[in-house]
Amino acid sequence: MNVAEPGIVIEDLRKSFEGFNAVRGVDISVPQGAFLVLVGPSGCGKTTMLRMLAGLEQPTGGQIRFGDRTVATATGGSIAPGRRDAGLVFQSYALWPHMTVQANIEWPLKVAKQPSGRRKARVREVLELLGIAQLASRYPGEISGGQQQRVAIGRMIAPAPSVLLFDEPLSNLDAKLRVETRSELVRIHRATGATSVYVTHDQVEAMTMATHVALMRDGVVEQFGSPDDLLSDPASSFVATFIGTPPANVIPAVVSGGVARSGGKAIASLPPSVPTGPIDLMYRAESLRLAPGPAEGVLAAEFAESTPLAGRFLVSASVGGKRLSVIADDHPRVLAGDRIWIGFPGQPDGLFDSATGAKVLLEWAAGSPL
Ligand SMILES: Nc1ncnc2c1ncn2[C@@H]1O[C@H](COP(=O)(O)OP(=O)(O)OP(=O)(O)O)[C@@H](O)[C@H]1O
């Protein structure tokens, strides 16, 4: 994939805080112009990664390169934040309240001692790119949260850095504005030609914005690839249940004689290469169906809720205390807590080791659907 110029190369990156390992050996490489999203649950080390990229945190191990420049190493010689040719935008906008929009965007250019004429021209260009020229002489207190975030982005891109770093920049916006700003941000990223790194805990943001996704868990990258790679071929049950709208279902089962049973009922037949014992079965919501009553390959479930979704329904129900999602053509016309029936296809969409969560490679017979 990487014939293009290297944008960012992260090698065996580590960070510990007083003996606590927040980042435990991360290797990621993306080409110039990529939009890399670091996503994962709270505390997985995303922000620590971004702070190391920005130069606000010194790595305990490994190194970071921007293009052909090494910007951070554990052994010293790291480049100071202001000299990395990188811009950073946080979740809080931190604009100067006593400066106009225009002055806020101009500020980093003044700090860089650019001549006035060049500064003014660049500020105009950035205001145009962001579609906020009409706000130029307002103060931050006189514009909306979404507009303030745009100004913060304008201030970041004004010096034309080659790396853009975003830390949950949309989390203070309301849901509708967040969706609109997502695509706007990607447009701005592309217009700058920079390589971006974007931190979020929202997998939908990751899947819609990224060219490359690193899903992190407990300080390591659980899977790195394109959004499509993670969705179509999750490397672990953690990835399968974190990514997707809705994420895939993973249910525990026990295999014996090539048959997988959940709660004692046979729901799938597996190739003979799958060893006897516990296993986790993955089913996408669209692979499951609502069944009219008990039958082979059908489990009883407790109905939770049903949400209309693009002309169909996303039905949630629990089986043995585990919540499952099913895409159905109709509402089950029952109340929360009532019994419904969920039908399983003969073969699951994937298998995971029940102890480690790692994907189990399958050798199905020729012509099988998997
Ligand atoms: N300065 C610090 N001192 C001690 N521990 C820290 C420090 N910074 C982060 N940590 C710990 O390192 C781990 C990773 O934190 P980090 O902020 O990188 O996670 P995150 O994935 O960004 O989480 P969130 O989405 O909640 O911001 C957490 O357990 C956190 O408590």
Automatic annotation (TrEMBL):
The alphabetized UniProt keywords are: ATP-binding, Cell membrane, Membrane, Nucleotide-binding, Translocase, Transport
- A Pfam family cross-referenced in the UniProt record is ABC_tran
Residues forming the ABC transporter domain are 8-243
- List the SMART domains: AAA
A Gene Ontology molecular function term of the record: ATP binding
Domain of life where this protein originates: Bacteria
Entry keyword annotation includes NADP: no
SUPFAM superfamilies reported in the protein's UniProt record:
MOP-like, P-loop containing nucleoside triphosphate hydrolases
Q: Which PANTHER family match?
A: MALTODEXTRIN IMPORT ATP-BINDING PROTEIN MSMX, TREHALOSE IMPORT ATP-BINDING PROTEIN SUGC
Protein name listed in UniProt: ABC transporter ATP-binding protein
**Protein's organism:** Leifsonella bigeumensis
